[in-house]
Amino acid sequence: MVKACKGYLTEEGLNRVWDQERVMTINRIHDCLNLNRAYQDAFQRTKKRMEETPGEKPFDFSQLYIFGKFEAFCRRLEKVSTPSKLRCRFPLVVLLKRNIAVITCVALFGSDDIGIC
């Protein structure tokens, strides 16, 4: 699942996540997070159905073993998506931060040459 999501996020390795449109990247990250939830929900439904069915062996698999790597991957995706969401919602804030950084750089270096900043 992790490999499939990485391929989906990077268009099979053709594009880095940071080089793609933010909105598209955020949507793809949410698709991966939803896949994780759906995968775990299906596991729980199947486990419950097997426990309720007479004569059926109970599900005896470690959820950590099955979902551990995917969970860790999804936690990283959530961390990555938060700054991107903020930049999409508040592009003016990002622009202001950049302008403040340039002004600070000019003030510090006393240069009109913005290229060094």
Description:
It is a single chain. This protein is mainly alpha-helical and 117 residues long. It has one domain (2-90). It has four helices and no strands. The protein has helices at residues 2-9, 22-52, 63-89, 91-109. 7% of the residues are buried.
Summarize the structure.
The protein is an all-alpha fold and 117 residues long. It has helices at residues 2-9, 22-52, 63-89, 91-109.
Q: Report on the biggest sheet.
A: none
SS-based class: mainly alpha
How many structural domains are formed by the residues?
1
Mean pLDDT: 76
Number of helical regions = 4
| Strand content range | under 5%
Low-confidence stretches: 102-117
Q: What is the rounded distance between the termini?
A: 42 Å
- SSE arrangement, N to C: HHHH
List the helices and strands and how they pair.
Elements: H1 2-9, H2 22-52, H3 63-89, H4 91-109
Helix pairs in contact: 2-3, 3-4
Considering the chains and any ligands shown, give keywords for the structure.
single chain, 117 residues, mainly alpha, 4 helices, 73% helix, elongated
